[in-house]
Amino acid sequence: MADFEYVSKREATEQTGPKPPLDLSHHLSRVTAARKESAIKKFYQYFQIPGIGNLAGGLPNASLFPFDTLEAQIAQPERWTPTPNDPNDPYKDLSQKLEKTSLKNGRDVTSSTHITVPHTSAVKNPMQKIDITSALQYGTAQGYPPLFSFLRQFTREVLHPNVPYAGGPEINLTCGSTDGMAKTLEAFTDVWSEERDWVRERPGMLCEEFAYMNALQAAAPRGVQIVPVAIDLEGMLPYGPGGLEDVLENWDDSKGKRPHLMYTVTIGQNPTSGTLSVKRRKELYEICSKYDVIIIEDDPYWYLQFPSAVGKEAEARNLPTPAPQPIHQFAKKSGYAFIDSLVPSYLNVDYDGRVIRLDTFSKTVAPGCRVGWITAQPAIIERILRITECSTQQPSGFVQSMLSELIMGPQPALAVAEFSKKSKKDQLAFTGWETAGWVRWLAGLRGNYENRMNRMCTQLEEGRFLLKQKTPNRTADADWAVISKTKMFSFDWPRAGMFVWVHMHYDTHPLAGVVPGPKMSELLWVFLTTVPYLVLASPGAVFSPTEEIRAEKGWQYFRLCFAAVDEEEVEKSSKRFAEGIKAFWLIKDKKEMEDIEPEINQDNLAQVADLGMGMAC
Ligand SMILES: Cc1ncc(COP(=O)(O)O)c(C=O)c1O
Prior knowledge:
It comes from Cadophora malorum. With about 625 residues, the protein is an alpha/beta fold.
């Protein structure tokens, strides 16, 4: 054998460039490792050959579908007014005024426009062809080609242009993040049973100390051990007691396998609204890399980052406005000031290829779409594709074609010209004609939710303290009013998301020590649903991943959602929430408190403003 090798120029440069993602197949579940490509689905690519006489596929005939077209009136991307990316921008007032103008190029931006999915489109390229004949037919498990190719390009070039591993990530469409999570669990966990399996084989999943329970409830019945990590305002703590390193380094094998999965919501965390900085991401990622943990980043609230929260919170509390923090300095920009101003995903620090990101249209279009996508290194996406082929196959073609029309829309001549200049390979991954409009829609949504957040927090801020006038002790002070200030609750103005996480200070209640805190919390929750307060908050217990957290801390919190009710109602019901708490703090008699009807009054329920948004969603 020769003691030297010829290396092609391409290979040599590849070795010095970004490294390929790690092989994480040792984490695959037995079932997922054993999956083979669907024998039927692999023929689908041949269906696209122009002029082919397809006698192979067991497809119903498209001319017999009872839908001739799908049509809808839709919003224009400029319907909602964006808020400034940088609240310190001296020109923000002017730019806001300009954004508010209701006529864009002569169009009234509040009016609707019309989209149609035709029965049969003459377009040849399947990446651009949006019609009933293709959308309502069986299709590839990646997703409907036009929507798949738009999202793939959007993900790789606009949302996450800085993924550090060679070749970048791939995507697969899902029926929303809940489905994405279920598929990820299927891919990376074997079902474990106490009666049948060794404890040392029990899989584990890390999560925030307060968490979105639906995701955990998908894991727990598979025997997955849920392992909470301590959090602060941002999110998970990398170091210190209860932090990620502490949990993993001091793992006790007699409790099960050291967790190999981490479920995390890093922007506008549900329920705490925590928003994780890039610095913190890097620290947590290093620890995950050291202990070989796969990161599942569930990020439905990514676009709802609120730059005004820090300054408004400081202003409301008479504190100096903190200096603006530089967000990130990654090499490539998305080309959209709004996207570039957002704290980026874990994918940007994913050198190993251990991040699986879940996106969804639930918060940007509507939850009923049941469409989202998973982003991860290609080998992981390939396994997710295999799972999809034999489970959901694809999200509904009705929704996929409507979303394709909504986002990609009529294609302007300039974009068509650009498209035709691309290589055949790039054409497969490029159809983002209306990307600018989609980004503008997202920016407008952020503006709308940011205003709601500010309205809710302003009301809560005013109601945090119980002020009482007391008689001065000394006659010399008779001309002075003595005001006592009792802090009933505290909260941070959310930096992102849809929720305010309210910490109740039951220890300042006059009956503290007489009525136990957990009981008080239960009674307050019911009290708030009574006339005249009529508000429903989500109790912290609903977001407690373990019995210990529920018993120790869960009862001290409420989650309020500023998204679900009308904007006017956000203010009114937040005010009633604060007034209800004040009235509760004025109860001095144990009997009076215990007399609060322990059951929610069904007659009131219809009038109650649901500040929990379906409680645990
Ligand atoms: C953190 C988080 N993940 C996922 C979901 C559900 O997403 P989807 O509708 O895409 O399944 C929610 C909904 O409230 C959520 O808060």
